[in-house]
Amino acid sequence: MPHRFARSTAILLNPKHNTIRLISQSANEFHISTPSPIRKAKPPTTQHLEVEAKFTPTPASLVLLRNNGGTPPFTTHVHLGTHTFKDTYHDTPLRLLKSHNIWLRYRSPPGIFELKTRAAGCYQRSAFVETKGREDVEGAVRKFVPDAELCEDGSTSSAFEVMVQLTTTREEWRVGPMTKIAVDQTEQGLFGELEIEVPVQEAVGVEGDAVKRLEKERDKFMERYGWAFPGKDGVIVGKLAAAIIASRGEEGIGAKQRMGAKGGMW
Question: Considering the entire predicted model, what is its pTM?
Fold first, then answer.
């Protein structure tokens, strides 16, 4: 006659093989589960839809922005501080990613790969899907560069080369539930950007209605608070374009206009 035992359960960890075993001790018998690997939980994909617009800050507009001194003033005006970071942009020698309106960068701090894919718009006013995190970015890039490898330290496989590096000191304000203003200082000058950002899972129809709705919100916001966005309707050279122009030794508004006319996240 089999022995009877009190009901109990034990979990055995085998660190050598990185497995767990569940032992269930019922009234009449032992039940030992099949070993299963311990898997690290994958962090959720960090992906956002960003609708942006560039402008050219001036010393006078910065005073107004810092003090919320324009007419009308922002109903929400929260200073988010100032911080400095370094961006390293990567692409293939033939600029394959750029040809698909995709920009790959490593930003430090915080030390993370980011991928920006243009969903709509043009050079000065555009919409992007931004993906963050090495694994998710690497998976997306491999659709275009199958042998792409991205390393935790910010380096990449030989399929890529560094396009440009730039250091930015950014001052930011939150001026709405989903809306921020950033003013960036680089070696090439001051650059401004208005950004409306929502998680992709909340932006149903990234290629259509969601983008159009956010674009309308952006344009209406900039029209109402035009005092904060000088140069928004003129020829604007983004900080990335300015850094590339500087690295190539190109000078003059003609080179800048040619760069801007190509469109994209410049």
Answer: 0.76
